[in-house]
Structures
1.
Amino acid sequence: MTDDPSQEHISSRIPVSERLFILKDDLSEDFVRASGPGGQNVNKVSTAVQLRFDLAGNETLPQDLKTRAAKLAGSRLTQHGEILLQADRFRTRERNRADALERLLELLRKAAERPKPRKATRPTLGSKKRRLEAKKQRGQVKKLRGRSARPDE
C-alpha cells in the first residue's frame, strides 16, 4: 500500500458507469439472519446483508440522477434519503454482499439513463376523418336503439 492519499481515494471509488462512480464511504452494511437456504446454519449465522447507500449525502452523482434513483428506489428509500437493499439469496456473506452491491449499481445505471423527451405531434388529416366517421357510425347505432314507433299511432 502506498502512502499517497490520492491513491487511497481512487481505491475507495466504485464505478457505476464510465463517467460515474460512488464512494465506499457512502455505503454501510449490516449483517442479519437470513431466511431461506442454509439449513440449521440459518439460525446461527448472520449471512443476509442490509446495504445502505446514502443517496442524499452523496456528492459524486448529479442531482437529476439522484432524483430518478429516488423514484426508482420507491419503498426502498428511507426518510433519511438512504437506499436500503437486503440480500439474502445466497448462503454466504460474500455472495450476498456482491449481490446487494450489484443490485444497487444496476439501479443507479438505470437512473443514469435520461428519459427520452416527448415530441408533440399533430394528428394527420386522415386520422381526424377516421375519428369523425367512427363517431358518426357510433351515433347512428345509438340512434337506432330508440323506441320503435307503435303501429296504432
2.
Amino acid sequence: MILPIFAYGCSTLRQPCTDVQTNDSIVASLIDDMWETMYHANGCGLAAPQIGRNINLFIVDSRGTYEGLEADQRQDFFDENDKGLVETFVNANIVWRSGRVWTDDEGCLSIPGLVLPVTRSWSIKIEYSDQHFVKKSRFFDGLTARMIQHEFDHTRGILHTDYLNSLRKKLVKSKLKRVSKGLVKSAYPMHFSKR
C-alpha cells in the first residue's frame, strides 16, 4: 500500500525513534508498504518517521543509482566492489564513521524540490537487523554509506537541512516554510502538519 510521506514541519520527523520490539506480520507489512511507497515516489531511501511511525526502521536502495550511472561515474560514488544494495535496516546503530568526508547533493522525500550539499563520512560501520531480524554488522562506503547515514539520521530526528550553515539556512527558510504549509507540489501523496 502506498502511504503518504510526512512533510517538513510534521513533528514526527523531529522525534527520536524507539527500537522495533517484535518481528511480526505487522512489521513485515509495514516494510512492504515502505518499499512500495519509496519506489512510487522515485526515492532511494525511506525511514519510518517519514510515514508517521516513530520506530527505528529504514530502507535503502543504492543499487538502482549504481545501475543508472555510467562506468566512469560509478568510480566517483562507489568503491570498486560495491555495486549498491537493497536493504532493510531495523534497530540500526552507526558505530563508526571514517575521518574521510565528502560533500554531495542530497534530496529528501519529506522536502520535495530542495536539493542541498551535505558533508558526510565516506565510510561507516553499522549494526542492524535485516527484514528477517537477522543481526548484521557491516561496513559501507561512498554513496551507499551516504544514503544509509541520511536515513539513519531520520531515526534520530535529524534532517539533512540541519547540516547547513546559518547563511544557507536563511536562504532556504522560505522554501521550507512553503513545504510545511503544503504549498509545494509533489508527484506522490504527502501528509502536512495541521497547525
3.
Amino acid sequence: MEHRIKERRTSFGYTQEQLSEKLGVSRQTIISIENVRYKPTLELAYKIVTLFQLRIEDVFIFEKESE
C-alpha cells in the first residue's frame, strides 16, 4: 500500500511529532507509516484523512493483491 501521508503532513506544516500528537499515536508510528513499514489500522487511517479533510482515496493508494 502506498500513501501520501508525508506529502500531506508537510503541506499542512506539521512535524512528525505534531501529527503524532494530533492522532494520539507515537512519533515512531508516524515514522513507520511514512517509511511503509507499518500499515495503519482502519481507525487510524480514518483519523488521518479526517484531520487532513480528505477522502481516503486522496491519501492511500490500495493495490490489488496478486492471486
